[in-house]
User: What shape does this take?
Amino acid sequence: MEFLNGIWTYLAPFLFVLTVLVFVHEMGHYLVARWCGVAVQTFSIGFGREICHWRDSRGTRWRIGWLPLGGYVTFLGDSDAASVRNARESEPSAERGGRYLEDEPLRVRTAVVSAGPIANFLLAVVLLAGLFAVVGQPFTPPVIHEVISDTAAAEAGFRAGDRVVEIDGRDIERFEEMQQLVLASPGRPLVVLVARDGRRLKLNVTPGVRTLTDRFGNAHEVGFLGVQRSGVDFIRHDPLSAVWYAARQTYTFTVMTLRYVGQMIVGSRPPDDLRGPIGIVQMSGQAAQIGVASVVQFMAVLSISLGLINLFPIPVLDGGHLLFYALEALRGKPLGARAREYGFRVGLALVVALMMVATWNDLVQLEVFEYMAGFFS
Assistant: This one.
């Protein structure tokens, strides 16, 4: 229960990280809406009663809510999460500075809704690029220095000196890229292309499964290949190269996350690693204790996760809006108000259920139930 005793040490970094990510996400919606001529009614950081607010010259109400666990942008005339026009709202006037989102062409609505998640991906690239340019990027050539006996690598025929070229069709330039893919694939067959003595060979390998405990005592089930590398170097890149490698890192993490979600959906991996708000609070504090570079890296990873989650085709999320727009494109007309209403109810139920599972995992990880049981034993 050490986490509960030092909650402010963890809570302050969490609020900082979350506020930045939410602000960037909502600013993406806001800027594209303004660019397309859509009137933005409210830009809010936080929920609930206002702490403060101000109104700009275009009529947008900027507000800060007392519950800093998210944010939102509403457009002129919105009456619900589906951006359905409020029947009592009059036609937009010049002083309101824009048009209804609902009246815009499908491409404009798609651009406005997509802008939030895209802004999160761009933020991750910017953060990682800055980190790679200032601190440096961990880099080790994907050359195997040693193969551990009685491991998956030894059984598959890996040898010292092999250079890994591809894994499942993905080019590998750094040992760290290979390591990330293996860690995310416990018990899943991989096809690895290696260069050996001027030839290229395909090796089929199924990484073993290991449970690792990080420096904070958190246990994780990961893949284990059984190869070792030489020492790790930190290479500082020029700005353009830093952006390129940051984009690659963002893409790699996105693919790994989607693969993990797919494994959960098909039941080949338990959802034990899902983390909710409590877990994110804990990880934010842990990153802050390590240093600024760790906080920046954590923000980048969390920004990617936020952008990706919002693209899931679940009503209530941005991806739910995009799903409705896709159906509208196929049907040639929008879905009815009742269909959208039921869709958002189902989506809200799914999001709540997911949050309950994630929060349960947080409480188990923090041993809250064992702590409470101690009062009755």
